[in-house]
Amino acid sequence: MTTKIDQARAQRRRTATEQARTRTRRTSSPGEQGAPYHHGALRDALLEAAERVLERDGLAGLTLRAVAREAGVSHAAPTHHFGDLTGLVSELAAIGFTRFNAAMKAAGEQPGTPIERAMGRARAYVAYAQANPGMYGLMFRTERLDYSRPSLHEAAEASFAGLAGSVASRGEGHVGDEELSLEQSAAIARAWSLVHGYTMLLLDGRLADILRRSPAGTTAESLLEAMLRATVPKLPPGA
What we know:
The protein is 71% helix and 0% strand. The protein is an all-alpha fold and 239 residues long. The radius of gyration is 25 Å and the shape is globular.
């Protein structure tokens, strides 16, 4: 039989639970339900959740509701922080470009000749895309992104500057911030077409038949290496 003491204890437990929920809501960003995030932490948590959804479910599965669900917050949270899906994916792409640039920069700072460093950057380019296919695909979906957002604009510009600098280090001369000669434009387009085209074929599984017909032991990495060496005949075998 339930006594008045039992009822009082139950009421105290309910009151304590409600007070705890109230404290949690007060430490959350506006519109959140039970997620103890401060404003900046919630923004980061939403971007991390968006990246997980992107890599798991692809761009088609990346919605504001899916991100909110992944982060465990209310459906209003992504809108509050990013405005709409374009805002969210643009900020996510900015993160992708920043990491992408860092990977290529690190590869380009390794010991070796200018050509060897350029080849290292090309390998880093492909390796990043292999490790992050969803993010890489998003970075080049221009129709889904808002390049007027400062973070994305700056990260994308840095990416192009890194590519242009890599081409310049191979003997095409200094590449300025604005004007390019026709030769510089052609060199950049040629290098980018080569590595981006290879990357997309690899990610789409279109190289499988070539690899199957190649000598035993040929991998996507060794195929890339052979292709790069074919474009720089001055580099001696084994260098």
